[in-house]
Amino acid sequence: MNELVVHTSTHSYNIYIDEQIRYQISKFIANDYSSIFIISDDQVAPLYLDDIMTGIETERIFHTVIPSGEASKNIDQYYRLQTIAMEKKLDRRSLIIALGGGVVGDLAGFVAATFMRGIDYIQVPTTILAHDSSVGGKVAINHELGKNMIGNFYPPKAVIYDVNTLKTLPDHEIRSGYAELIKEAFIANAEFLQQLLPLTLATISNDQLKDHLFQGVKIKADIVEKDEKELNIRKFLNFGHTLAHALEAELGYGKITHGEAVAIGMLFALKISEHKYNKSLYYDQLLNWLQGNNYPLSLFHTGIDQLINAMKLDKKAQYQQIQMVLLSSIGKPVVVNLTDDELHSYLQSFKKE
Ligand code: NAD
Ligand code: MG
């Protein structure tokens, strides 16, 4: 089993990554919780809900599902979950379990963060992308005016990751998760990048998955331990995200996955980095890898001005000034301010390629 400890300002928690570990959740849960409330989505629950309840003995165990997809990370679902928690008489000594991808994790985590001013929760991630969302303690729901605008920093009590659950993911979700893993390699670990670049996603083994998730989680954990509230180096995790967020907003959420948008954003950031620092930073290698693994790579029909405007609306832009994470070398990210004119010309040449 791969195991990792994350230290936060309030407590430490463990991340366990293994095969078939979903049948052993009961071993990781303290036995003095007054009740347990499992939140999942309607695609994940039929596959894994029964499995994770194996061995949990309390009679006070409840569960519910949300419709799968980003649209469920909303105030109505949040309110419905709080209502169930109250109807089932959860109290301060209750535990919430989030079983699913980042949508379930963010929503269930925010319910836990705010129910009676905060109760324990654990993350049982079932997507590759959720190696990112389940670690670091950010929990949130969306507002009509912006994604993740209502939320908190509220770390879980544990993260229990069963790589066997990832076998049922559709290909585009595998691509989505691996884009974030490759992002972590680019910003922090050149050796990990060398392992990932020859990889064919269609043939990854469980051992590779375990190893890659472990390395990705470790990079993320190291960063959030040093900067929990994103005041400085946590921003590096936004490598590829400035354009990605704009693209997702312009295309409408759901057209491509988050990670697929990040893949395009990383190419763009690498293009600018190679130009600014006048050296190879693996743009060509990343492009080959993404093409070989069937990532959708065009900027579609989005206009450049719309993309720049969308970048300014991103909540990480400060005072309408667009900041991007670039690389000065592999494993050495830098945050750089870019003017509209610079962005315009970079986007124009990027779009032509
Ligand atoms: P998701 O939770 O929507 O899952 C993707 C799809 O896969 C869904 O349709 C889901 O039902 C399905 N699915 C999940 N597990 C499955 C399995 N094992 N087998 C088959 N199908 C399965 O999306 P995601 O990509 O996991 O997460 C995206 C969300 O995560 C976004 O809302 C994003 O804002 C959030 N996020 C949060 C953080 C953070 O730090 N909190 C970081 C990154 C992303
Ligand atoms: Mg991301």
TrEMBL record:
It comes from Pseudogracilibacillus auburnensis. CDD domains: DHQS. The chain crosses the membrane at residues 95-116. It holds the Pfam family DHQ_synthase. It catalyses: 7-phospho-2-dehydro-3-deoxy-D-arabino-heptonate = 3-dehydroquinate + phosphate. It is found in: Cytoplasm. InterPro entries: Dehydroquinate_synthase, DHQ_synth_AroB, DHQ_synth_fam, DHQS/DOIS_N, DHQS_C. Catalyzes the conversion of 3-deoxy-D-arabino-heptulosonate 7-phosphate (DAHP) to dehydroquinate (DHQ). NAD(+) binds at residues 68-73, 102-106, 126-127, 138, 147, 165-168. This is 3-dehydroquinate synthase. The gene is aroB. One of its GO terms (cellular component) is cytoplasm. Pathway: Metabolic intermediate biosynthesis; chorismate biosynthesis; chorismate from D-erythrose 4-phosphate and phosphoenolpyruvate: step 2/7. One of its GO terms (molecular function) is metal ion binding. Binds 1 divalent metal cation per subunit. Can use either Co(2+) or Zn(2+). The lineage of its organism: Bacteria, Bacillati, Bacillota, Bacilli, Bacillales. Its cofactor is Zn(2+); NAD(+); Co(2+).
